[in-house]
Design a protein that fits this description.
Blueprint: H1 5-11, E1 42-43, H2 53-66, H3 78-91, E2 95-99, H4 102-114, E3 119-123, H5 127-130, H6 135-138, E4 143-147, H7 156-169, E5 176-182, H8 195-207, E6 211-215, H9 219-226, H10 230-235, E7 239-243, E8 254-258, H11 260-263, H12 266-272, H13 281-291, H14 294-313, E9 318-321, E10 329-334, H15 340-351, E11 353-354, E12 364-367, H16 377-391
Parallel strand pairs: 1-11, 3-4, 3-5, 5-6, 6-7
Antiparallel strand pairs: 2-8, 7-8, 9-10, 10-12
The protein binds pyridoxal-5'-phosphate.
């Protein structure tokens, strides 16, 4: 089977690959396009800083210099344990465990929560359903039943309908054990699910003895835009997974939180899958570093983004709009006179500001992250002002 990288990126909805990367070599992500002697890039593409290898190494050095990093041993102890303990505090769950990937975290949560039940209801647009290579079916003997096709998220009525449909129409009952929610929703431009919807589903699941798992890969971003704390989100779920590399800037990794009954079984399962890594401190030290003050940081990102967008919207021909239930992804549209490619190239070459490509509707998914805190807003706006002039020539 050909694993075509361009196709993979497209399917992952990374349609916003920057212009500076020639379309013939999409395998070059921006990380390899490092600019030397330059300031931190302001990127309007990713959820995090997209650190280059040398920036990553520098960051690890800084972290190690301020307090020597204590390594873990096969995931046990050291800074990995400190990160897990921090997530226990942040989520209010009994246990937290590091895993090498979010895919493994989701799959193992589903497998263990579901026990001997075979059916798991998952959002049709979720990472679990679309992007985990049918692992539930092929590795864990679980049958994923998609819900909410064509919608950003499903509601309690959709859930009741699908449960009663399978109850009525399937002869051999093999049991439903778990429901999955993804929030924020990657395939719905990062929008968050209204809290009332989550509350209703959670209450229903508790009443009917179904377990509820949250794929919260980017949960802190949802927290910042919905004003719901992580501890509150976590309280509605039995297990919650959070990514260490989306906005916590590690080079990979995941955390799964839940009660001892589930989480204490995870490390054995990781080993079975061949995922027990000798040392993971290179990921957990960076994630722990960026986790400190995360709530204050994201509230600053939101307020800074609001100011930035309001200033950019005053430039002729620029329209940036937030989405309903939107988080850090906004719709950017330029007037016909502005050549987006010229603007993006100018911003990159002269200011190390990264802008993504437009989709088929001419919209750029303009994404904000903590890189906007690294530069004076005036400087960013002035760069755009000049760039727009040049892009009209
Ligand atoms: C919503 C969501 N869940 C899970 C994952 C899986 O994470 P990992 O790449 O660590 O397997 C991703 C990664 O893109 C994601 O966006």
């Amino acid at each position: 089977m050909e694993n075509n990288r361009r196709n993979f990126l497209k399917k992952c909805s990374l349609s916003t690959i920057p212009f500076l990367i020639p379309s013939t070599s999409l395998n070059e992500l921006p990380f390899s396009k490092e600019k030397t002697n330059d300031n931190t890039p302001v990127n309007f593409i990713f959820d995090g800083l997209a650190l280059s290898p040398s920036q990553y190494l520098e960051k690890l050095q800084d972290i190690n210099q301020s307090a020597a990093i204590e390594p873990d041993f096969y995931g046990n102890g050291g800074i990995t344990k400190r990160l897990e303990d921090r997530f226990i505090e942040l989520t209010g769950k009994e246990r937290a465990i590091y895993l090498p990937t979010g895919t493994m975290a989701n799959q193992l949560a589903i497998k263990l929560l579901n026990e001997s039940n075979t059916k798991v209801i998952v959002p049709e647009n979720s990472h679990v359903f679309r992007d985990e290579a049918d692992a539930a079916q092929s590795v864990h003997n679980k049958r994923l039943i998609p819900i909410g096709k064509g919608k950003a998220f499903f509601n309690l009525t959709d859930l009741k309908d699908i449960i009663s449909y399978t109850d009525k129409n399937e002869v051999f009952k093999s049991g439903l054990g778990t429901i999955v929610i993804e929030n924020p929703i990657r395939r719905a431009d990062g929008t968050f699910i209204p809290i009332e919807n989550i509350k209703e589903i959670s209450k229903y699941c508790k009443e009917h003895n179904y377990n509820l798992h949250l794929d919260g890969a980017r949960i802190h971003i949802a927290c910042a835009y919905s004003n719901i704390s992580l501890i509150e989100y976590a309280s509605y779920f039995d297990t919650i997974y959070i990514s260490l590399y989306k906005y916590l800037n590690a080079s990979g990794g995941a955390i799964l939180c839940g009660n001892a009954k589930i989480i204490d079984k995870i490390s054995h399962q990781i080993k079975i899958l061949g995922g027990t890594v000798f040392q993971s401190w290179n990921n957990t030290a960076v994630a722990l570093h960026y986790l400190e003050g995360i709530e204050e940081k994201w509230s600053k990102i939101v307020s800074t983004a609001t100011k930035l967008i309001s200033s950019l919207n005053q430039l002729n021909g620029v329209s940036i709009k937030s989405l309903k239930n939107g988080t850090n992804i906004y719709d950017l549209k330029l007037s016909k006179e502005i050549n987006l490619k010229k603007l993006a190239n100018y911003l990159y070459d002269e200011h190390n500001i990264w802008l993504g490509r437009a989709n088929e509707n001419g919209i750029v998914k303009f994404t904000v992250n903590e890189s906007i805190l690294t530069r004076a807003l005036e400087e960013i706006v002035n760069a755009w002002r000049t760039g727009i002039k040049k892009a009209m020539e």
